[in-house]
Amino acid sequence: MMVRVTAPSPRRFASSDEWRWPRQSRHSSVKLMRRLALALLCASFPVAAQGQQPAADTVVVRAQLPRDVAVEVVSLFNATTTLRTTERTDIAAGRDVPGDVAVLDGPLTVAGHVAGRVLAINSDVILARGARIDGDLLVVGGEVEGSEGAVIGGELRIYHAPLRYTQQGDQLVATLDATSVEEQWWRRFERRGRRNFNRLEIASAGVYNRVEGLPIRIGPVLYRDQGWGHFRLDATAVVRTESSFASSTPDVGHDVRFEARAGRQFGASVGGRIYDVVAGVEDWQLSNAEVALASFFFHRDYRDYYGRHGGQLFAALRATGNAELTLSYSDERWRARTTRNPFAFTLDGVAWRDNPQLDAGRFHLANLTLRVDTRNDDLHPRDGWYLLADFERGAGRIDAAGPTSPNARLTGTGTTRYHRIFVDARRYNRIAPNAQLNMRLVTGGWLSGDPLPLERRLSIDGPGTVPGFDFRSTGGTDVGTCGEVSSPPGRPAQCERVALAQLEYRNDLHVSVSRGSGAQRRTRLRLDGAWVFFADAGRGWLVNAPASSLNVGRHELPPLSSYRTDLGAGLDFDLLGVYVAKALSEPKEPPNVFLRVRRRF
Amino acid sequence: MRVLARATVLACALSALWSAPAVAQRRVQLDVTVPSPANPVTVTSTGLFADPDMRELVRSGFPASLRYRLELWRAGGLFNDLEGTREWELIVQYDPSGQRYRVVRREGGRLEDLGSFATLSTAQAVLERPLRITQPAPQRQARRYYYNFVLDVSALSVSDMDQLERWLRGVRGGTAAGAIGSGMRTLMLRMLGGENRHYERRSSTFVN
């Protein structure tokens, strides 16, 4: 088989960091014949043709404009009435074009202002510094120079493959290749995240846990792009592997959410949600993946859960992906969930830790939540801030109060009204090219009103907080969970306020294991990670339990000597980290070895 | 016996977690050449598809997303300051019908079709060419700077339904046991976000 082989050399560099590719020759008859010959050959040997890849050092350049892009540009060209030319065109500085511009076989030079869209077919576009295009810039069979010094209000799309066309009067007609299939994935890619879709979604509805097993949501998702924003509707049933199929009364939840969003990077959202789901009490300590894996593999569930059934309205303001302010109002009923016996790889015959019996009742909740994230990388941050602040006003009635330690709260059932705040602030700093010093401060709890219901209480306990202390193991008076004398089954979080400070020093670590020497030397294993040294301090306390030894005045902080403190070190290899932590404030506590998925915070 | 089976599955799952990034990190190589008065900073990434798993996925039609980020840091003082960032993304996807690898570059609102190639090796060679970057550039004189070059590679960026569709069409083929093993590994990696492979390279420190 003979094919023409060419090297993909760059045609030229308009600016130093832009890539350029050879244009396709307009004389396509040779190419057409070659394709025909190739197609005949492939048809003769279909199995071989599918099973073999061309040789690694060959390249067949078949630059081809995707079919529906060709249709699109021809349609746009024919529809353009403000300024349509078939020759070299200059829009000088100071000139204002009130509508769309279409140029065939230019080039087009823009130094002024175009209020609409610019389309260049088989033409280069040169943008002078200060040029302004309010709409999209679409270039087919050409290149763009100077885009960095110009303002393009819409999208900039560049296709280096030229348009093949014929002219009928003043109208263009695209010459389409009937066998073209490129547009299928190409258009899918271009419209990724912006196309309309309806689909059936089957996905996890939360973490693998000891009260539901694996919650799975099943249902349709409708998405409609409106140009100015989108509508989205998720209507899913929530099936729980432990309870939906085991009891006479099917325990099937639901989660229906509607959202209308205006704008893309900046904008606002409004929406509503009705739900019957299981929620975690404190989901700020460990990630969902960590909780799920610990439950599934090691039979340790680090969260407590309760049922939420009700509805919610919300509105949000958004600034890029870095900041969001959300206001929500919910009317919901809380109820306790009992422990089931889901499968675990280890210790499967052992009983799970009880899920504490939390308060049951009806609540009206108003939340104002601010999230600011200026980190340079979500998963591997080296610089920036992360701030999550939530203010909640709750009012309702507790019908069945969950048990607490003696003196942890004076009254249980009855009407209640409270204000609560929660703040998680993190700062990531690079102190040297290979070293980081990161800090985290978590604080929150009761602000005013009645004592907090158990669902809104907090703890400083376990690997996500002060890992030198084992999870739910301290007896007697416990500043981690605010249990005193005795704790109810499952040892729920009972603190009304908490404070936690975490400090972490990280230094890059590169591990390479090689075999042989000289030219025979081969790297067998290479791991890039970091060694980590950390210190933590934190505790919880009560403010509405004067009879308790853990009570601290509403306007006071506990003495620093009463805080849980620890020191630790570990190795973090991106996906998994292994650490050891030793409690300092309780020297008798043995060191704890623990795993974390990705970073500690 | 049951305990042994569980231990085996657990060991396989954990080894999958550990081995995937280890194998990948063995070959992908990032390089950053510090700028000189005549030339801006130059970045290079090589061995992008040397990992057999990644190569197989791309050849099976899964799009590979290569997200690059070049950061300019100013050293000195108590903390190093991030002075500028430039991000771009390259997407490579094999079209089995046309038997071509298409490469697209996206940067901000700019979308550029870089062409289609007959083999992954040629597409890779093009992606691996040195790239000269003019921005971000050091602005202050007589200060110490360095660049940090980051690459995040993900091969499974298509939607779950698309994956399922391809799976059902038997694109990857293989035996039932192989499918279960592969599915288990994919599930674990997806739970941990491990399908996204992360590489970083720091330049030497230079004085502007």
Q: Would you list the SSEs of chain B in sequence order as H and E? A: HEEHEEEEHEEHHEE
Largest sheet of chain A: 16 strands, antiparallel
* Amino-to-carboxy terminus distance of chain A: 58 Å
Determine the mean pLDDT of chain A. Answer: 84
Quickly name the level 1 CATH class of the largest domain in chain A.
Mainly Beta
Rough shape of chain B?
A: elongated
Largest interface here, residues on each chain? A-B, 74 and 68 residues
Count of strand segments of chain A: 31
* Helix segment tally of chain A: 5
Helix content of chain A: under 10%
Describe it:
The complex is a heterodimer of chains A (601) and B (208). With 601 residues, chain A is mostly beta strands. In chain A, 9% of the residues lie in helices and 43% in strands. Chain A contains five helices and 31 strands. Chain A has helices at 29-44, 46-51, 67-79, 182-190, 288-298, and strands at residues 83-85, 89-91, 96-97, 101-104, 108-110, 113-114, 118-121, 125-127, 132-133, 137-140, 144-145, 151-152, 156-159, 165-168, 171-174, 197-204, 215-225, 229-240, 252-262, 266-280, 305-319, 323-336, 360-373, 384-400, 414-432, 435-449, 497-515, 522-541, 564-573, 576-583, 592-597. In chain A, strand 19 (252-262) and strand 20 form a beta hairpin. Residues 16-26 and 157-179 of chain B have low confidence and may be disordered. Chain B has helices at residues 2-25, 52-59, 120-127, 160-168, 176-192; strands at residues 29-33, 41-46, 64-74, 81-95, 100-107, 110-117, 131-133, 144-154, 196-202, 206-207. Chain B has one domain. Classes of the chains: A mainly beta (601), B alpha+beta (208). Chains A and B meet through strand 13, helix 4, strand 16, helix 5 and strand 25 of A and helix 1, strand 3, strand 4, strand 5 and strand 6 of B.
